[in-house]
Amino acid sequence: MTAVSNETAIPIGQMDDLQPGEGRAYGVEGRQVAVFRMTDGTLRATDAVCPHRGGPIADGQFDLGNVVCPLHQYAFRFSDGGCTTEGIGSVGVYRVEDRSGEIVIWL
Ligand code: FES
Predict the structure, then answer these.
(1) Residue 6's pLDDT band (boundaries 50, 70, 90)?
(2) CATH number of the domain within which 55 lies
(3) Which of 22, 23, 61, 69 is a plausible cystine mate for 55, CB 3.0–4.6 Å?
(4) Ligand 1 pocket: which of 71, 83, 84, 86 to mutate (most atoms <8 Å of CB)?
(5) Segment 45-63, tens digit of pLDDT
(6) Which domain holds residue 52?
(7) Distance 75 CA to ligand 1 centre (A)
């Protein structure tokens, strides 16, 4: 997770609505953000729209390191948003946390 800023934390939903192993897209301040709940309970967040051809990143398979877009299977790193395939571009990555059962994000 890079792109950590000092902006205000924005509450976007409840942890109970996002099960381990699940990703969901949220509308946050006019932006579509994909939030993923890892099997270890931690969260990751990226832009929800794939830079390749607009695929729904939140619906992709993921592990602790990467999410794979479901349309053409390009993978993006949670660490920096970069694609593991050269020339595809990158997604924004955001700080996201569980605060006493509430999902909060910093854009
Ligand atoms: S739209 Fe995401 S890999 Fe093509």
Answers:
(1) low
(2) 2.102.10.10
(3) 69
(4) 71
(5) 999 999 999 999 999 999 9
(6) 23-106
(7) 9
Residue 5 lies in a domain: no
Distance 61 CA to ligand 1 centre (A): 13
Could you tell me the pTM of the whole model?
Answer: 0.92
CA of 68 to the centre of ligand 1 (A): 9
Q: Across all residues in the chain, what is the average pLDDT?
A: 94
Ligand 1 atom closest to residue 69's alpha carbon, by position in its atom list: 2
Cβ neighbours of residue 97 under 8 Å, at least 6 residues apart?
A: 9, 43, 103, 104, 105
Strands (E), the chain: 10-14, 23-28, 31-37, 43-47, 61-62, 66-68, 75-77, 93-99, 102-106
C-alpha distance from residue 102 to each of 38, 44, 98 (Å): 15, 14, 6
